[in-house]
Input
Amino acid sequence: MKSLFLQISVYFLSVFLLANCASTSKINTLKPEPEDATPLIYDNKPSFISMPVALKIKDIENQTNKYLTGLIYEDNNIEDDDYTIKIWKQAPIQIENESGKIKTVLPLKVLVKYRIGTDKLGINLYNTREFNFNGTITLQSSVAMNNWKLKTKTAFKSIIWNESPSIKIFGKEVPITYAINPAIQVFKSKIEKTIDESIQESVDFKPNVLDALDKIATPSEMSPEYESWLRVVPTELYATDAIIKGQSIEMQMGLKCSIETLIGNQPAKIFDRNKIVLKPVAKIPDHFSANIVAVSTYQDASKIITKNYEGQEFGSGSRKVKVMNVALWHKNDKIVIALDLTGSLTGTIYLTGLPKYDEATKVVYFENLDYAIDTKSSLIRTANWLASGTILKKMEQLCRYSLQPNLNEGKETMLKYLSNFSPMPGVFLNGRMGDIKFTEIQLTNKAILAFLNVSGKVAVKVDGLE
Output
């Protein structure tokens, strides 16, 4: 009887112990509440991109010929200076470099009506003569940049007659070569002004530059998988004086902008073309330095870290747990990591730590990761085995995510702008860039921000402008 009682007691004790070993304990811990949600604001250092610009003189020639056709100048008021003048372009204008200045060869035809005499006591004593010029004029221009436009200062150099200048007398053309050279003074200033105005109007950089900036400012998708976007926000533009070099006009342009990589839906374009001002400067560095901010929202970081825990178990002996979900937020200058557990222990535990960046592996990890105070107290009471530093270290290894994919995609996206990129017909960008380097991490209430820097060179070539 005593033996039977002992067997029954052992049986129920065994069942009780097995039941307790197989049962799941629950943990209730206080949640470290996230800070109030306020707009995401961060200090994004500006980037400076230097862009040497080379404009083919042939393009200036083509644009000027498009602008100047047929009758290129007309003055029909004879009362102000006793003459009227009409000037026609006879053939395409030729423009080239000559000793650091623009040489313009203009085939033209000129009709001048010149009035000689006076008007006294109401009696008209005027005599009007008509002069025909047909020749080729050579002009020379210095160049500069002014208010987005190529500005020239043109001086008349010489004229070669295709046929002798003549005067019409009684309906017949009578050569007057001996008297025509002084008459050149009548219209040469008009020609100089016409050439200056035509070049200035036909080579206006502003629409082309603003169109290019508008295209660059449109956010471009780097990775559909990570829903990452590159956004460039132009703020200021600089330009040095233009110089003639070979058969091109060269200048240095510089762009001040901010560059971001953003996660989630396509971000809005932030660019107001009406507020961009072209600022003249004496010199611009020959390289660019771009500061990039990689924005990892806590929601997106949580998704990545949750994937790290898939298929992983943590525990001691037969007591094990799995992490089903991870959530991150900001609290008192630290990151709270919430782990939803299932297994021998169910509930949510909370870790806290500081994000750091490993330059070698391009990984964001959490330094000095520890259980939140209430979590640690609860674990000691209900699941001391989980409070082990060894288990915490294993969890810490999975609380990380790599920026390498985004950095690679960001670099590839930026390189697209440096490999014969053509924002418009006839304009080409080429260059090179170095590796993307980490500078610092900042925390906001909505995201972890990794600040990065990249340097390189870029050049703009204008060849075949339409």
User: Anything to note?
Assistant: Residues 57-202 form one domain.
